[in-house]
Structures are given as structure tokens and as C-alpha cells.
Structures
1.
Amino acid sequence: MSLHRFLARLIWLCVLPLVVLAAYLAIYNIQATLAQSDSEAAHRVRNAAVAIDEYLRARLGALRMLAMSPLVDDPSRWQDLYREAQGFQQSFGSHVILADAQLRMLFNTRMPFGAQLPALPTPKGRSAARTALETGAPAVGDSFIGPVSHLPMVAMATPVMRDGKPVALVLSVFEARLFQDRIDRVSLPEGWVLTLLDGASIPIARHAPPAFDPEADVDPAGRFVVSSTVAPWSIVLEIRRDVRNAHVVRAALLLALAVLGATLVGVLGGRLAAGRLGRAVATLAEPSAAAPDVPEIHEITAVRAMLGEARDQREAAEAALRDSERRFRATFEQAAVGIALVTPDGRWLRTNQKLCDIVGYTQDELAALTFQDITHPDDLEADLDQVQRMLAGEIETYSLEKRYLRKGGAIVWINLTAALVRQADGSPDYFISVVEDIERRKEAEIALQDLNASLEQRVALRTAELTAANRELDSFAYAVSHDLRAPLRAMSGFSHALAEDYGDRLEGEGKKYLNQIDIASRNMAELIDGILALSRSTRGELKRERIDVTAMAESTLAVLARSEPERAVEATVEPGLTLCAGARMAEAVLDNLLGNAWKYTAKSPAAKIRVYRGELDGKPCICISDNGAGFDMAHADQLFQPFRRLHRHDEFPGIGVGLATVQRIVQRYGGAIRAHSAPGEGATFCFRLADEGEAA
């Protein structure tokens, strides 16, 4: 057998194990790809389940606070409880129901208080209301169709416990679309489907592509299910069969091509190398075929150079390792935070000086202790629970704030971050613990709490001052209403009596003076009425109800038309105008704005007044425009000031409090008002009131 053929067979024998190893690696890589995909899917579905549970716990906690309210025990105060429940609705976007132990609704924030209500519906699966009554604990039920909204709903209930027995229920009903929104916010790779199922396996929400069929499109191995710890629900993540298999096919194809290419390159290269080596050996075996001074073989020279280079690289690697270890030791010892290596049972393997400074022990003293020995007893259970979860593989790292007991017995607050290093076989090796001294931060938090307490006191003091100011304002309004009206009525009455009894004896100047007294009395009465209206606009309870602005404006214009039947005013009111406010406040706004439009169009030959829907700051509003006298926008800053007028009294009578009253009412409702005008071209006033969500 020739040397060339022997070397070729030897090359094939060397390549064959590599081919087998490559095939094994290909299979292993495919399995690893599937395992990685499955691990990611399990992690995502667990995160989604935790998010849903936290979402439910927050709302159950709020319902529990309502159930503990003493207002539940007094039917006469249920309307106050109804308003508190509306606060829950504004915070969480769901309505609240109070029901008795016989499952009869007492009120439902979806309906006005006192409205006739149907009985609570009974879902096909688990009923939150019945479960809460039977267990005496908060419960979440299965989905059902709401009797009022006729939409898919989900209910949660908290029993009202008195003397250890449930006497009533506080329920919250959510539209299933809220959970759909949360499911849709979960970022998923293409072809992954996330579904929230109730206890009866009915989908509450699903994030899936169109025409998805879980039975036909998903293998059992591609389905991951996590049960909720709060509700009888489950969260299911499914990977479509074609998506799951695509990773396998792609990885197998790439690896097969790589193995084939590597094999061909190896065989061809080996054959070339074997031929060269054979020829070199042949020349050495036949000295007669070569010159007397046979040169050194290049391959042997290359091997010798490679061995020398390998030796140099090994020495360089050893030096780099020593340098890396030196840097690690320096970083470990000089770090600004405490660092330690801890065994799985809590013994200190290695600690840096910063940790010793934090706890007051030397490194030798710590080596004889465990972290359990210096952890505050009240914090030990929470710490050990996280350690067990990490050892079980549930978490990879954790961080918590806890207290250490220093050597002298003093307490120091620290922030601990721990990670587990495992051996090659997956068994726990040691923990890496990073300990940060947060004592100053805790002191700052205490100082901040003290500051918040002082701020609350100042707020209470300011509230008391505002209350006193309101009482003074009420006293002033009372004085204006009673103390000033009495002498005014006397002055007006005596002037009228003087005119009736002695008017024929008065000369021209006397009658003029008497007439001026009467005019001044009327102006003073109007001024008092304006002051009282301005005062009332800043006080009183702010009510919110849906007001038909169209009907109210038409009624006000009709009253104005009857007051001056000789005027021909073209008034148009857009249909369907509404706003949320108290009826008295809304009427005051429209009366003043329409009254001004009526007054300032008195000298227009073809008077026009228009009430329509407009836009203010990008939001819908109500506008009132006219083609009357108008005003100069250069003086617009005086427009809403009390008792400031832009026209003479002899041109257009008035006292100048109407627009000031309107502005105060609009501002109390969190809204805004704007005016636009030009002299002789009329004026337009647009206003909007904040809705309940904005006002909150």
C-alpha cells in the first residue's frame, strides 16, 4: 500500500468521528433551540399571569376598603357609599355593585342611585358573588353577559363581614375588553398566541392572528398553561406548529450545510496535504532522487514554529490570567459596595473590606458566621424565601432591602442583590452577593415622611384659612343682601313718595335731581344683585349632570324675545348641544352670554345671534356669536374683570359683572373661555367645561 493511499484512509478515519460529532451537535442544537423557545414561552406566560394577578389584586384591595366602610351598615348613607364607589369607577374604569346576601342589587354605579335594578346574573361557571358568600373571602368569577350593558363582563366580589358572617357583597364588574387591552400590550413573537381563559375554559381575551384554530394549529408540546393564583382562570401561550417547526428545519438545514462544507473542505485539504507530505517523505526515502544537501522540510519547520508559538501563547495566556485575577482581586477589595461569595447554606467564603466595614466584623470573624447570623430576625424569612426560590431555579437573581446586625448590636439598612453560580452539572456552587449601605437613604426617607407630615399640617391650616375666608364672604354677601338693601329701599321709597306728593311743587332742577336719585337707586340695586351673583358663582356645591344646552338656550332666547317684542332678532341654536354641569350654573352662564348678545345687537339693523358647537384648544366647546357692537381686542384683558365695561352706560346699560360671573363658573368646572371681536363686527364667546375625568 502506498503512503499516499494510507494517508488518505487515515484522513477519512479522522474525518468520520468529526462528522458523527457534527451530527450529534446538530441534534443537540435543535433540541437546545426548542428548549430555549420553550423556556422563553414559559417565562412570558408566567409574566403575563403575574401581571393579570397584580391587576386583579389591586382592584380586590380597593373593593375590600369599600366593604370595610361603616357606610354599608346604614341604608340611609348608601348614597354616600355610592359616591365613594363612583371614585373606584373613576380610578379603575369599572362599575361597582352593592348587593345583599340574597344577591339582590342595592345599587349599581352604571345606573343612577335609586334606579330599578335587576337581580345579579349567574354565570355558567364560577360565580364571584356566591363564592364570596360561601367562603367569606374575596373571589373572582367567570365571564358572563351583563344584564345592563349586554356586554361580556367579569365580576369580582368582596363579602361584607359582620361578626364573622357575610351580610352583603361589594362587587366590581369589568368589561372583558379591559383584559383584551392588557393581553394586546404583551409583546409576542410572530406566530405566538396568548389567551386568558376563565374557569369554564371560555376565552376572556385572546391575542391571536386571524383564523387561528388552537386545536388544528398547535401541538400539545407548543402549549404552555399557567393558572392564576387569584382567580379560577388560566393563561395559555400557544406556538403555532409551523412557527415552532420552522426553527427546527432552519437550524437542521444550516447545520447540515455547515457539516457538509466542513467535511468537503477537510477531505480535499487533507488529500492535498497527504500528497505533499508523501512527496516530501518520498524524497527523504530516496536520497538519490534529491540533491546531496536535502533542505529541511517546510511542514516540519512549520510544526516546530507552531509548537513554539503555542508555547508563547500559553505563557501569554497564563500571564493574562494572572493579570485578570489581580484586577478581579483589586476590584473585589476596592469596590464601593460590599461583595461576598456565600455557600448555599449561608457560610461566607470570601468577603471584601467594604462589607466588613458595613457589618463591623473582620473577614476571619465573618468566616465563622453565616449570613443568617447577622440578618435581622424580622427580615430573615423573606431573605430565605428568595434563596430557596433561586436554588429551585424559579429565579436567577433577586434584590431586597433588609437589616443587618452589626457586631456591636446596632442595626444597619442594606440593599442586597444576589445571584447564584452553578457548577457544570447544574448543581448550586456559591452565591455572589452585592451589599449596598443605604442607611443614609433610609434616614432621608424618614426625613421625607416628616416633611410630608408637616406639609399635610400646612394644607390643613390653609384649608382652615380658606374656610374662614368663605365664611367672611358669606357674611359680606349677607350684609350686601340685607344691610344695604334696607336703606336703599328706604331711599327709593322716599324718593317715589316725594315725587308723588310734592312733585308738582318742584321746579325743573328739583325734578331732575329727584329723577337722578331714582336712577341711582336702581343702579345701586343692580350693583348689589351683581355682587351677589358674582359671590354665588364662586361658592356652593359643584354638581355634574347632562344639561341640554340647546333647550336651555332656546328658552333663554324666548324670554328675551318676550321682554322686547318689538325687536326682530334672527336667533339660531344648533341641535344636540350638551354639557356636564349643574343646572343653576349652566343657566347663569347662558343667561349672561345670551343676554349680552341680545343687548349689544340692539343697534344692529338685522340682529343675528347664533349658538353652535365649536373647538377650543383642540377640544369641543360651545360658542355664542352675534353681529352687534363688538369691542377692541386691545382691551380684552379687561373683559372678565368685575365692574369693568368697554362701552359707555348711556350706549349699553349694565354694571359689568356678567362676564366675570361666567368666567368664575367656567374656571370652577376646570374649563376655559375665550372671546374674539372687532368694533362693529360683533363678538364670539367660546367656552368649554372639563368633563369628570379631566376635573379629577
2.
Amino acid sequence: MFSRLCFSVSSVPKPSKSILAVDKVYFYAKNNATEHRTIRYELVHRQPETAILRRGQPFTFIIRFADGKSFNPGKDILRLNFDLGPNPSIIKHTQGILNVRGDEEELTKENDQWDVRVVGKDADTITLQVQIPVDVPIGIWKLKIFTGETSEPAGRLRLYDCPNDIYILFNPWCEEDSVYMEREEHGGKKANNLLDEYVLADVGKIWMGAYGSARGREWVYGQYDDATLPVCMYLLEGCGIPHFERANPVVVSRALTKMVNQADGDNGILVGRWDGKYDDGTAPSAWTGSVKIIEDYLATKTPVKYGQCWVFAGVLTTVCRALGIPARPVSNLVSAHDTNGTFTIDRFFDAKGNALESDPFNPGGETDSIWNFHVWVEAWMARADLPKGYGGWQAIDATPQERSAGFYQCGPASVEAIRKGQVGLAYDVAFVLASVNADCVTWKEDKTSEIGYVQMNCDRYKVGKQILTKKPFVFDTVGQSDTDDITDTYKSSEGSNEERISLLTAVGSSVRAKRFFRYPEKAAEDVVFDLIELERIPIGESFNVVVTLENRSKQVRTINAVLSATTNFYNGVKAHLVRHATATFVLQPMAREELRLPVSAKDYMGKLVEYGIMKLCASATVKETNQTWIEEDDFQVIMPSVDIKVTGSKKVGQPLEVIFTFVNVLKMQLTQCKMAFEGPGLTRSDFRDYPDLAPGETLTIKINLMPKFAGEHSLVACFDSKEFTEITGAVKVVVTK
């Protein structure tokens, strides 16, 4: 059968002059884009026209023939070849061949096959509608048109190689597509289309900060920018997955997690950095969205400096949405990084109570850690490779934390599998489960124990305090009413039987994890300590580190205590020591005391790093019983914001005046000041440098914008300086025609 479809174009002798010659193909990119929900892609509006289509839907185009000739059914041969990649193959579904007879009035084939019908014919044109199979690989397809005459030998065909690119994307609106997402249900009635949020929305929020003070920061995804789809194609070529596998969103999304970062040296988009040294690039906190990153990457073909988890997640969300995969960033507050697969975050102390710098049970010596927050992406897709019930949201993570199958890639991990502890299901379920539900265990050296350490404390409630994303169809530029707490999709209520069963199910699959969970927690001792937690303080205010102590015994207890306050990077690494104090005192029987370490604004100003995270740490030992206690609390210093005001008619094609205002409320000069702003449909990403700001000085910036299309838009701004970063603001702008 296939031999009849394959034909030679090395025609000897040359095709007859009477054979139809194609003069031009008109894809009517805008008309098709409206039907395929791709009208906002900038490439659609560029010249030459670029068709951006979704699989599982038909599209219409016109072929114009040269010399005023028309297509004559029965006499003329007209064949269409749709090809993907350098070696297109019908068997591998990277080629579609259609023979146009001229009498096709309807599309009659199943939607997993290429099909064609004639819409109309004029003197020198033919209008065709082609059905794109629902399961073809995504990518840039090319059209070749062969013409001939039925009376001529099969080899005498004329070739027209269409110069236009045809982008074919996933189609989450098509029920047969593996990324199909149903509408949101309310009271049994079909209501809002979730795809308006998870595919079409080009501005959103990413939650950042310490538990208790985290807030949603605005992020411009910019999936419609004219650089985004070319970068997506470049990434798919760079990751090396065969073209035929690009039909599978599981394969594609996993490859994207590898290519958004460059940790494997494969020329991915972003370089990660967490040490605060960004002089040779852009500080992660200074980005306002994905567009500038993607444009810089496309222009240089080299990784952009710098990103952190939430930036990786923002860019990954952009490329997923651009390709038609429903996606949303998800923030895990108090996120565990389990380096050895035990489902525990372990801290070790010697017999005297001194913290060890390495993990004695980890062959590489790496230590587990807890991040104040960590952001990954959820992508929506069916999972035909897993048992029934594990499709839907899948966790994918582009932040290079641990290798998976030899590369820095993560997921897709079924969120339902994570909730049920099914760590044997592909991919990386165990790693994500530990991130949201590991136990925090403190070990102390004890030579009488068979492993040399005894478990002092196990905190089953610390990790995965909240898992947040943006609520669909709500965008709050002032407050946090658009917060969607989805913790219960990852785990049952903390401490419940269901939650414990899920974690122990995961533990049961790991020999090493079972060993760690075999050792019981040491019995409670007679001095009770408590570190009073802080949630947030406005920048410039003082605070206290407070510990309460209660001696529940009838004997005197001698306490050696250490209190400290540090500034920290959000991944748990200490930046600077702010205050440190030690004390030894006697606690009388059945007595209660309070330790207090004051910290002034002068102590921490100048030592804060990005996101304003501070850590309080308290530890104590009881001389008489050798009891050891340690507790930590992270909180956030809250920064001021950028105020944005918009004046003007707010109509398409008419100027708007935008005023950005930032007041330096700090008692110090801010240097190397920058303001970045962007808003899809209003302005492209713009970075500007400004003079130093003295204490109390106001920076006012006025710009004029010209709205490009009607609708609700978001304008996002970020002020950055050497001393302080992550000072943001946003405003909604409703534009009418």
C-alpha cells in the first residue's frame, strides 16, 4: 500500500510544461488561528504568515496555480506531503500524504488520520480543508505539493516546496488529545473553561516567601511572544528526543525540565545561582517574566544568567502553555530536599550536642536541607503509561536539584501517585513526595546504639506546610485573595491515618528508608523548650528571639543555651550572622523561665539578602541529663512596594501615561538602582538604570504606552538595587476598542 504513496521527484525527463505549477499557498493564518485559539501568537501577525495550529482540528488554505490554470479532477494529480523532521515517515507518524481527487466534500476519516476535502474552486485556485490527526507529534511541519497529470508517467511530478512554517501544537480543547482538560463544573453545569487560565492566560502569580508571610508575585509568562515558539522548537531539537516521540506530552514535558536548566551542559535556557553573586548577569529577583529571558536566549543561543526555582518554574510554565500543555506554577512552603531517599530530613549532632557538617549515613556526605519555599510546575495530561486514575496534574520541575536517569530532570510525577505514596510509578514520585511530606529527624551520637546514633526528635508536621498556586479566573494586584491552597491534593491532613499510611507505603518500597524508620524516637525528657515563632516584620523594625523553658522535674537543671539570628538564602543556606548569644543558668525545680535576645534594625540592615528571609535558631543542653534540644524558625522581612498609576483613555491605539513610584523608606542610600517593567499587549520587557536613591527619596518614572488590543491586561514592575531586591508592584489595565 505504501509503495503507491511514495513517489520520485528526480524526474527524468522533466515534467511537461502542461503540468500544473503552484504559484503560491495562502494559509490565512489569522482566520485559522481564530478557530485554533492561537490568534494572540505574535508570529501569526508577522510576515511571511505563519500558521499556528492545534492537532485534532482541521484548517483551511488556498493553493493558487501559475499561468491562470485551474485544477482539473481526473486529469491533474495534486498530492500534499506534510513532513516533520529530516526523515519523515508515515509509519512513525511524522509524515502525512494526501491525494486530492477534487470531489471530496466531507472529511470522512477518523480523527487520528490525515484527511482532506475541497471547500471550493475558482479559475486558478483551489481551497482545501485538511484534518490534522489528534496524535501527531508537535513541532514545525512543512508542506510539499506535488502536481502531475494522470496520463504522464508517475515520476514526472512537479514539486512546490512551501516556504511557510506550520506550527502544530497540543490541543487541550480536543477530547481525544492526551492533554485534554474538561471545563470546571459548578452544580452540575459546565461553567468556566479552565484552559482560559492554564493555557491562554499570559500573566499570573508565583507564591514566594517563608511560611506565614508568603505572597504571590506577579509573573509575565509571555507565551505569545514571537521568540517563544522558536525557542520551544530549539529546546526540543536540543534535547535529542526523536520527532515521533514529540506526540507524547509525558516525553515532551520531561525533556523540557531538562532543557530549561543548563546544569547538564546541554545549552539549556537558564543558569541557576543561589549565592547572591549576580554581577555578571541579572539577579533572579529582578526578572518580571519569561519574555526577556527567552528573547536573550534566542538571540545568543547561550544560557541566560541567572535563575532560581521560581524563575525556572515561570519559564517552564511559559513553554508548556506555548506548546498547548495546561500548566501552572506550584509553591511548596517549607520544602524538603532529601538527598538519600530516606523520606527523612536528618540532622546529626555529636555526643556533646555540636551539629555535624555532613551526613554520616550518606555516602557522598551531602546533607539534607529544607528550603523556605520551592516552586515547580504542574502540567495536565493523561498517563497511558500508568494504571488508571493517575492522569491529571503532574509535577514537573526544571530546577536542577537531583539527577534522574543521569540528567537534571524531574517528572512528570502524578500528583495522585504522590498523595497515595505510589513511588514505583514513573517519574520521580519519591523525590516530590519527600519534598512535601518528609519527616524531620534529629539524631545524636550514642555509641550504645547499633547504628551509633539515637533519634532525639521527629517532627512529622514541619515539611509541606502549604502548597499554593493561583486561583483560576482571579487576579489580585493588591492582596492575596487569588491564593489557591492545594495542599490536600498532595497529601491528606497532616498527622491523619491516611497521611501516615501514604508515607509508610512509600517508605516500604525503600530498604534504606525502612532502616531509618525502624528506630523509635527517644522518650521525652523533663525540660520543655519552646522557640516563639515570628511570621513577618516590616523592614526597619526591631524584634526579639524568645525561648521559654519549663523544668518539669523536682531537681535543679543547669542549662547551656545558644540563641542566634541569621539572614538566609531561601534554599536554607546561611548568608550572614546577625546576632549570637550564649548563656548558662540554673533552672529551679518546676520553674519556668524566658530567654530573650533583642535584634535591632541596625543589626540586620545591610545583611539582608534576596527575599528578606531570616532564621532564628535556639539550642540547649541540660548538664545533668545530657538532654539536647534544637529548634529553628524562619520568617520574612517585608519590603515596600512599587506604586503604579495609569491615566489616559485606555483604548486601543491611544496613548496611556504610566507613573511608577518607589519611596526609599530605609535609612540608607540605595545604589545601582534598576526598574524593570512589562505587560503583554501594553509593552515589551524593559530594563532601565537610575541614579542612587538617598534615604527618604522618591523615584518617579513616567512612560507612555500604546495598547495593542482590547481586554484586561496586567502591568508588572520590579525595583532592584545592590542593597535590596524583590520590590514589586502590579496593576490591572482594562483596554477597550
